[in-house]
Amino acid sequence: MGAQEAMDTMPQRNRAVQREARKIRDRQDNGPSYTEARSSVRRGQRRVRMLPAPAMVDTTLWARYGRWVFGTDDWQQWLFRTGCGHTQSPRDVVMAIPGTRPELALTRCFRHGPGADASVCPPVGSPGTQYYSVFWWHAKTAVFPFAFDEPYVVHGPLTEADDLDVVVPGITRPLEVPAG
Ligand SMILES: [Zn+2]
Fold first, then answer.
1. Which of 30, 87, 123, 152 is least enclosed by beta carbons within 10 angstroms?
2. How many whole angstroms separate alpha carbon 11 and alpha carbon 16?
3. Ligand 1 centroid – CA 98 distance (Å)
4. 44 CA distance to ligand 1 centroid (A)?
């Protein structure tokens, strides 16, 4: 990718596109589907099919999905769907339970807790459930899928920023163990 593409970067681009597509869809009763509306929003936007969960994805692809869907690199604002269908973000969880490690919102349902009935809230990575296995050079971690139901995600021209991994301790990087 070249400098020209990098210069085309627009912050919040994907969120803006999605908002616009929803407006188009909601404007008329028998209008286009959300996906159809979104594909017509803006020239130069690209529509990419996301790998359906469960799937194994590398950290770069997973980071792209997150920033494309939620329009930000701040993974603590991303929304995840737990085994029982609860939606939670790392930021919400940390606000609600001070001292919680935010990355736990990707692997643990905060509605039901670790001792939950698995028939009500299957643990992340359970057979038959949706999850992404995020892998890096010598580890992989099952994480909840994004709370995003569209099979396609719209994003702008690729830039260098799209090749940056998002650093999530224990998910895309080793968990930092306190010294001593
Ligand atoms: Zn749950």
1. 30
2. 9
3. 19
4. 39
Q: Where are the domains of the chain?
A: 3-163
**153 CB-near residues (< 8 Å, 6+ apart):** 14, 47, 48, 50, 65, 68, 69
pLDDT digits (tens, 9 = 90+) for 92-107: 999 999 999 999 999 9
- 128 alpha carbon to ligand 1 midpoint, in Å? 16
The rounded Å distance from CA 125 to ligand 1 centre is 13
Kindly report, residue by residue over 147-165, the tens digit of the pLDDT.
999 999 988 878 788 888 8
Whether the CB-CB separation of 157 and 145 falls below 8 Å is answered with: no
Instruction: Report the separation in Å between the CA atom of 54 and the middle of ligand 1, taken as the mean of its atom positions.
Output: 18
What is the enclosing helix (H) or strand (E) of 69?
helix 59-70
Which CA distances in Å does 167 have to 19, 128, 157?
A: 27, 28, 22
Residue matched to tokens 């692997």 = 107
Nearest to 59 by CA among 180, 163, 146: 163
CA angle (39, 9, 3) in 5-degree steps = 120
Global pTM value? 0.74
